[in-house]
Design brief:
Blueprint lengths: L1 H15 L18 H32 L1 H16 L2 H15 L2 H30 L3 H9 L4 H36 E4 L2 E4 L3 H10 L3 H30 L16 H8 L1 H25 L11 H29 L4 H38 L1 H16 L2 H12 L5 H12 L2 H13 L3 H9 L4 H35 L1 E4 L2 E4 L3 H11 L2 H33 L4
Antiparallel strand pairs: 1-2, 3-4
Helix pairs in contact: 1-4, 1-12, 1-21, 2-3, 2-5, 2-7, 2-9, 3-21, 4-5, 5-7, 5-19, 7-8, 7-9, 7-14, 7-17, 8-9, 8-15, 9-10, 9-14, 13-14, 13-16, 13-17, 13-19, 13-20, 13-21, 15-16, 16-19, 17-19, 19-20, 19-21, 20-21
Length: about 550
């Protein structure tokens, strides 16, 4: 999978050479009258990326969890893809698309791809974790009833993973807003790729030091987030409460005035009765006939096996050719440049570890409090969404100026921005895990008189364990991605740089130094993949075997 990624990046770099040599983006106005249009454009990009992320999550995670042969390829590929630093991948995508498509279409597609890659991985890992921790007795019941793959997906897999998927969807939209600034305003050498939107508005305001415009842009973003909270996330949480795996009703279930309005609406009831129910019943009937319950495996026919080997041989030959070409490109780097990349990887790794430790320290108690106390959640849930969605890159330059006077202030600022890009993946997964703890077990813990620490040790932490690992994998990837903007920041016409692989990627991007960009990106990817395989993947296996709710 690493070889496939290397060849793909090399192909993108070669194609990028055919991109337009000079690009001037549209002028971004800071007038308040432009904000509504900018907000609509950015929201459309974020939602388009989210729809793609949801479709990818359902298909990819299902295949990885239910097909042992496919999982051999899909799981390593998922590790590799989520470790690719988004901001180093964007120049390759942007330049290669602009070489083969009209510039406006290429810019929109590149922005959606960037936002997609900031949203999809935590959703996919959460969905995969849910599918691999479904209780065995429920799977056996679905087999006893003779469910085909569609009915099992509809009545078991999707309901079981709904709560985690909703909370990670909240995080994904927040992550989309976090990276929307980078998606809408980007420079590669002499090329100025810019799209009108809320992200480019905030970036332009921050670059000009116009705090009035920054505040107006953030206010517009908060307004959008509040709308999403009231008309999407709260109704979904209220609806998903009946998918909890428990035998008793919660004391304070989540509520939503919009969900209650829809349930009592005659128009909604008519649409459900006349449109939704007939369509879903017809779809169920067609899929049941199309995909009968699985029978004994028939194996692969000899002719099919021959075709697989031929295609595999051609693919391997292509990969070897790409590998030789990539090595030739990397050979342009000098030994000091390779040494600089190695030192940068170690420096960034230390910052990532520190950011993760700080994130674990506060997200676990706060996430459990929100997930187990609905009254508290009613107040804090929208607040958390707002804070997680505000692009820290818009406010970071101001924080940077306050910290520069301190010893090691640039390093402290870098860790702080990486923390801002990391902690929300953990928090939303902790909330999802705490929300999914069956009320029956909480009652049992109270009945046998478990004290605070004993309850955490025997109930809360074991129930959270799969969610913590999912959050840690995606949070680690977020921290490595955030290092690119944390270690190389521009504000007020000045550039502040600290040692790290993120700053190497940022400088290589700005200079159009493709050998250094490829080398630094691959170094970061290999480091993240090694951590995932040696640490997080083993903990994932432990979660599947020991911490299943059954």
């Amino acid at each position: 999978m690493l070889l496939v990624l290397t060849v793909a990046l090399y192909g993108g770099v070669r194609l990028a050479g055919s991109a337009p040599a000079l690009v001037h983006g549209p002028q971004i106005t800071l007038a308040p009258s432009a904000l509504p249009l900018y907000a609509v454009l950015s929201t459309a990009r974020v939602l388009a990326a989210y729809v793609l992320s949801l479709l990818f999550t359902l298909v990819y995670g299902y295949a990885a969890a239910n097909n042992r042969r496919a999982s051999v390829v899909l799981l390593p590929l998922l590790d590799v893809l989520q470790s690719v630093p988004i901001l180093s991948f964007l120049p390759v995508v942007l330049l290669s698309l602009s070489a083969v498509l009209p510039l406006g279409v290429a810019l929109e597609l590149a922005a959606i791809v960037l936002i997609f890659t900031s949203q999809v991985w935590n959703m996919t890992f959460s969905w995969y974790q849910s599918l691999t921790t479904i209780p065995h007795e429920l799977r056996e019941a679905s087999s006893t009833f003779g469910f085909n793959n569609w009915l099992r997906f509809k009545t078991l897999d999707l309901p079981f993973g709904t709560i985690g998927l909703i909370w990670n969807s909240m995080m994904s939209l927040a992550g989309g807003w976090f990276f929307v600034m980078a998606a809408e305003i980007f420079t590669v050498g002499e090329r100025d790729f810019r799209l009108p939107g809320l992200g480019s508005y905030l970036q332009a305001a921050a670059n000009q030091g116009d705090m009035r415009a920054v505040i107006m842009g953030v206010a517009a973003l908060i307004f959008i987030i509040v709308l999403f909270d009231h008309f999407l996330w709260r109704p979904l949480l209220a609806w998903s409460d009946h998918y909890r795996l428990e035998m008793s009703e919660r004391d304070n279930p989540p509520t939503s005035w919009w969900y209650d309005t829809l349930q009592s609406s005659r128009l909604a009831q008519w649409c459900s009765r006349r449109l939704f129910v007939p369509v879903t019943e017809a779809l169920d009937s067609w899929l049941i006939r199309r995909f009968p319950p699985p029978g004994p495996s028939q194996g692969i026919a000899p002719a099919q096996a021959l075709g697989v080997y031929l295609i595999g041989g051609v693919a391997v030959a292509g990969l070897l050719w790409g590998l030789v070409s990539s090595v030739h490109l990397l050979s342009h780097l000098s030994l000091p440049e390779w040494q600089g990349i190695a030192v940068g990887v170690l420096a960034t790794l230390l910052r990532v570890v520190l950011a993760l430790a700080l994130a674990f320290a506060w997200t676990i108690p706060v996430g459990v409090a929100i997930g187990t106390n609905q009254r508290l959640a009613n107040w804090l849930q929208p607040l958390v969404q707002i804070i997680a969605s505000v692009p820290a890159t818009a406010l970071f330059p101001v924080v940077l100026l306050l910290l520069l006077a301190l010893p090691g202030g640039l390093n402290i600022a870098a860790v702080l921005l990486m923390l801002l890009g990391t902690q929300w993946y953990l928090l939303f997964n902790v909330i999802a895990g705490a929300s999914a703890i069956p009320q029956d077990l909480s009652y049992t813990a109270a009945l046998i008189g478990l004290k605070s620490w004993d309850k955490w040790r025997t109930l809360i932490l074991p129930a959270l364990f799969p969610y913590l690992i999912t959050g840690a994998i995606t949070a680690g990837g977020g921290a490595w991605n955030a290092s690119i903007v944390a270690e190389d920041t521009k504000f007020g016409g000045k550039t502040y740089i600290t040692t790290g692989v993120g700053s190497s990627i940022a400088q290589a991007t700005a200079a159009g130094n493709y050998p250094l960009l490829l080398a630094a990106t691959l170094s970061m990817v290999v480091t993240v993949v090694l951590i995932n395989r040696l640490v997080w993947r083993r903990l994932y296996q432990l979660a599947e075997k020991q911490y299943r709710m059954e």
